[in-house]
User: What shape does this take?
Amino acid sequence: MSLTKCGSCGVPKPIAFMHRWRDDGILESRLGGARGILVEREAFAGSLQKIEEALGFPIDHIIIDAKRRDAKLYVDDVVSGVPGVIARLRPFRRLGYVIMIRQAAMIGLAKAELLSYKPGVKFVGRVYPVYHPILFVGDVCGAFESLEKKRARPIYGKIGEAWYSELYVDDSLPREDRLELEKTPETTARAGFERCEACGVPRGIGNFRWITSQAKIIDTTTGEWIIYINVAGLNTILRELEQELGEDIPRMVSRFVFDVYRGLVREHPASYLEDLSFMKLRGFGIPDADAPSREELAQGLVVRNPFNAPMVAGIVAAIRGGDSAEFTWETPEPGVLLVRVEG
Ligand SMILES: [Zn+2]
Assistant: This one.
């Protein structure tokens, strides 16, 4: 699979076609309008792995259930209207999965393969590489539920380097009423993007390489694997983890995210990671200042339209604070985050 790229900035045309970088800093899917971010795989999927290690017991069931619900709504939105009705007809349903597999590869999540499929009964798939195997099981369950309109029970495991998931319809699982996506509050803000004159995508995104053969997006400055992930899903997972496991979760997540970005800053001095201007390109939110001083940070930096408070606080502290920075955050009004960093 190869993607046609913009002749001016090099971003694949389907990415520009399917996503909108709004002037208020919100990055969203043009289909359905769900908010997303372009984030280092390690900062989100890696943090979930670290939470599990720190807790010392599996949290698969919480992750799969939260991601399943988000993915169902995502596929409901993406495969909608008349094409959606057609894609859910039994003879065409396989095509719905093919579209979602292609989509997952394009946004850097996974290279998946449909091995065996019987409409309305079962689905067997193989995936490698994958951004996070357990999150992906949730994605597959949600897609299945959206396309089949039935709940399924997943069985999954690793053989060699690849992950396999099998889904079987289970009518004993409760049907749910329509869940609403929890939107992050929004406020007015101005990103002031410098955009590609040909495709409209902000300059800076051209720094990424879309390697479709591996289903990865690579940041050419840091070499990091970047994924595009739904903000509502990410927030749902973190909220469920907090509800199930306790109020320490946001602090743990912010610390893990801090560690990831602090590591990148140390490894790549004199790169774009010197200031916060990259945050708006990724859909993270718009800081009031791109290069706040230590004094300004101690007083508090405002970030408008943050996608997630603990993660954004960890990013700000890692980029502009020191190795042993301490930080806190608060939300003075909806859509506005105040981050204080000491050290
Ligand atoms: Zn372009």
